[in-house]
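W.,

You were right to be curious about this one. When I first looked at the sequence I had no strong expectations either way, so I just let the prediction run and decided to look at it fresh. Below is the sequence, 595 residues in total, followed by the output.
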Amino acid sequence: MAPLRDALRSEGHEYIWFLTGNLLKSFPFKEDPFTTRILELQHYLPDAIFVPGNEVPHYLQGVKVQIFHGLAGEKKGHFRIRHYFDLYLTQGPYFTERFLALREKHQDFEVVQTGWPKLDILWDATLRARCVQHRTQLLEQAGAGTLLLYAPTFSPSLTSAPYLLDEIRDLAEDPKYLIQIKFHDLMDPGVVAQYEGLASQHPRVEVVRESNIVQYLLAADLLISDTSSVIYEFLLLDKPVVSYRSIAERIQWENAANYRNLRALVETNLQDDPFSRQRAEIKAAFHPYEDGQSASRMLQATEAYLRTHGVPEGRRLSPYRRTKIRWLFGPHIHEPYLGPRKVPISALLITYNEILHIEQVLENLKFADEIIVVDSHSTDGTAEVVRAHPKARLIQRDFLNYTDQKSYALEQASHDWVVFTDADERIPDTLLDEIYRTINNPEQSVSAFFFRRRFMFKDKVLRFSGWQSDKNYRLFRKSRCRFTNNRIVHETLDVDGSTAILDNKLIHYSYRSYEDYKGKMLRYGKMKAQEEYARGKRFGWLPMVLRPAYKFLNHFILRLGILDGTRGVVVSYLNALGVYSRYQELKCLSRINKP
């Protein structure tokens, strides 16, 4: 989508990227405006939404434009109409004709042939020259004359990678070939390791890691693949392909039915090129453009649609489709708060070795006017991620206890209203909208708000086991609240004024693995023991036996952990283990400090 972004820039349009949270780490354009929140798109009020996929929230304002993410029209669902889109922008006549026929049937979208913006870069003269030069250098260094690219699909049922290892090894024995291997990010790591082992033994075999395959397509003389849609991109460059057991509808290149004879097939297609005429037909049908202007044509088609139809407020969908959108993108906020956001917010975090959470929690808190992170000298890269974030301020400070660290963080806040979360917590759109609506209400006088929490066992909601009533102060006024000094774990907020509970829940990703949660419970248990010992509590054998047992039964039976099945057993046991560790620590403290 980068060519589309560049075209938007050149024509003076405003834009914002939307990506799901799992793409955040790999997103390459973090200097651009972007968001992981659908709520922000509702505030943004776009005129157009360009989607390289099959779904888009129907309730968002804007003409919904599908741009396709491949040329493999034979893939299941490519020509299925799901009723999310107002405008389909097709790559070439083969696709256009099919979608025009579907438009006649459904009568609720438009179709315009524009070309595919991803391919604009293929016709960039500077890039092509650079790739040719790089190819020449690679071949000279290897003492080879031909550059081959192997790019299989990752799908376990379709990939050729497990079966072509020996054939690629045999091909590598020929000194005239240099072989580059480009795997999809989702390829089985075990298969990748086998090919990396091959590359370590053969100087003319290289497993390449760059995510963008374009430079390898431009440099290679021949492509080896299977059912990957990259075949079509390579054919557009008018170069030969050898595939294995492709499921394409119209195979107009060399395709083998069994995993043998790779060297012979490569030599035949390089020397005789028996499919050159068929490549020309593919090019004319699939993508006849070589001007690098597909992105510009897309913008022109979208602007023409807007001039004719205006800006759509949304699309009407069946109950099934609406349910699917809710499952993919979260609950629909029917009337989001769009009023002025006059009240500034400080977002506060304390951290130690939170590399698994830090990037996503910072993105989640990006709505705040400032983000302050007090870090206890992390060693896993957490601090480096915070430093790189444009909105976050990092303070590194020794950790004494939770109350001390949170009190210090609170002192650093510039604004009166504070959101104080943990690194493993996320504020969903529904809760954020409620926050906006609440603190910007001039009539509200509450000093602190509880957030209920939805406990996540790995990536699934734990509905019982004692967590169904869990809540904590997370939104409060700095001028009216402070952390009490008599607790060092599960800190307590002392509130001057009234309190209330917000309706929507915070998401709590506390349980990511058994060992992680076990360590957390043991750590909390020991700190709780130190807190209780300082208040005069001492070790006793009977409580050490009875209290953990009661904790387990309370969570598993009285608080319905039994309804969570195996997960309820695990969480109830680990909570009981935390109580046991508390008494073990009390026993140690009593022994150490015995007169």
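Here's what jumped out at me. Residues 566-592 form the longest helix (27 residues). And, maybe more interesting for your project: The mean pLDDT is 90.

Coffee later to discuss?

I.
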